[in-house]
Structure to design on (227 residues):
């Protein structure tokens, strides 16, 4: 069984500040890990994914995430927040075989203050 | 090219009525997934298709839920005798193959009164 925990349902940062969104997972097999972003009234958009290659994954819009097996974490970071980053962010895990269905965390809503 | 589309975008129905939700995946994508997103929660997997077959229906919440896919294209999620707890956003995703990135549609917001 897999699960994802996102710490903090709401995170608020100032424009230009570091963004850190936390994600911890559990999986009985080596996982594939994803971050998706959902802008208001839009569908989910893939930010980045980890599929057992490099542990530091770079995504779109300046985001990156680091897979840390020892900590079972896959935190999302961005050095400098922009107003347009305000959205809801979902961490997800999938098995690396079979149906590949995604198991999502409950999401973190990011607010960016001017 | 066109992304995943879903219709209707919003559906309001009365308790006890049946509803059909439609998903048009990206052309050529063999895998198709349905998820449900309840208010304030993450997405919950419902069912997936590989081609036209659904090998695993264990994620469906009850026997009131069913889904089909034809022509390795359009999929329909049907909810019979809707209940208030069925109110949610239903999202569809498709991928080229099972191992590939899932691309999501905008969802159908279902409200059961």
């Amino acid at each position: 069984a897999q699960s994802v925990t996102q710490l903090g349902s709401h995170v608020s940062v100032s424009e230009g500040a570091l963004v850190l969104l936390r994600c911890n997972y559990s999986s009985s097999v080596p996982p594939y890990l994803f971050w998706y972003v959902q802008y208001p009234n839009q569908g989910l958009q893939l930010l980045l994914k980890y599929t057992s290659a490099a542990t530091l994954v770079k995504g779109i819009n300046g985001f990156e995430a680091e897979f840390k097996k020892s900590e079972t974490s896959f935190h999302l970071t961005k050095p400098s927040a922009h107003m347009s980053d305000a959205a809801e962010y979902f961490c997800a895990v999938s098995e690396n075989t079979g149906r590949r269905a995604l198991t999502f965390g409950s999401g973190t809503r990011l607010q960016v203050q001017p | 090219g066109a992304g995943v589309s879903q219709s209707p975008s919003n559906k309001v129905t009365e308790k006890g009525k049946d509803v059909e939700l439609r998903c048009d995946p990206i052309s050529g994508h063999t895998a198709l997934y349905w998820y449900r997103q309840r208010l304030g929660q993450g997405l919950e997997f419902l069912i997936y298709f590989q081609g036209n077959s659904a090998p695993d229906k264990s994620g469906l919440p009850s026997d009131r839920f069913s889904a089909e896919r034809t022509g390795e294209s359009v999929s329909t999620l049907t909810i019979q005798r809707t209940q208030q707890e069925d109110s949610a956003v239903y999202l569809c995703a498709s991928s080229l193959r099972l191992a590939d990135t899932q691309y999501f549609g905008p969802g159908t917001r279902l409200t059961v009164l």
Observations:
- Chain B touches chain A through 28 residues (CB under 8 Å).
- Residues 19 and 46 of chain B are 16 Å apart (CA to CA).
